[in-house]
Predict the structure.
Amino acid sequence: MALVRCWAVGIVVLVVSEYVQMALVYGPLVGPRGVSSFGAALALVHLPNLACVVLATWAAARVHPEPWRRMPGRHLAAACAAPAAAQVLLLSLRPGVLDPAGPALWMSTGVLLAGCAVGLLLDRLVWTS
């Protein structure tokens, strides 16, 4: 039951933060045409996505109770399952992103890995202090 609660919190935080990102950043600044350069994609798409993944991972990790949070594999599954599931959902809904030669797959995977790592680091820093 502890894992389900962590996953639920991660999903809720991810959905709310992605909605805020879409409403405040992506919609007004990017628009339906998309971005035209790598720098614009990084600043307007990938960095806000990184913040969303960090928040979701951190929130899920924070609600993971003792003694299970001391088990590294279980804690990793509790904290990172929601962002990883969102990545799998994105890749299944947008098969054009699956091109291994394209930068979108690698950037979104990098955002997922970095966001989970930073979220777990934040959890560790707050938990030990």
In short: The mean pLDDT is 88. Helices lie at 2-30, 38-62, 72-93, 103-128. The longest helix spans residues 2-30. The CA atoms of residues 63 and 93 lie 30 Å apart.
